[in-house]
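Researcher: I'm preparing a figure for a lab meeting and need a structural model of a single chain. I don't have an experimental structure, so a prediction will have to do for now. The sequence is pasted below. Please return the structure as tokens so I can convert it later.
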Amino acid sequence: MKTYLVLNGPNLNLLGRREKEHYGTFTLADAEASLRADAAAIGCGVAFLQSNHEGALIDAIQAAPGTYAGILFNPGAYTHTSVALRDAIAACPVPVVEVHISNIHAREEFRQKSLLAPVCRGQVSGFGLESYRLGLLALAGDAGAGRAG
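Model: Understood. Here is the structure written out token by token.
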């Protein structure tokens, strides 16, 4: 059975308590439980890591090949700032799908540019908790297809 790594970046541990107008009322534990059920329904597994530290996220991306069939990644604010995460994704041979709860393209101007999207297989943005499910479906259906481009 294929297993996918679900990475969540900074401040996503505060889901349910922060900026509910953008992120809703569900918690990270709610998101993980929902994604576990989705994974079981399509016959795959998921593993989770949330970190507020860029280096821990990079380490997880670098360790993924050989263990995970793909990565579902909500990089939070690192989306707009991290060349280091971009480089880690570019060097990673497993597909990465970038996900966002809010529609980053409808937010503040500084949030509308993703440094990571060009090296990811795709991006799902703006569908709340559903963004994770859609990203998982994309990975599970297309994990061997490589990167767009």
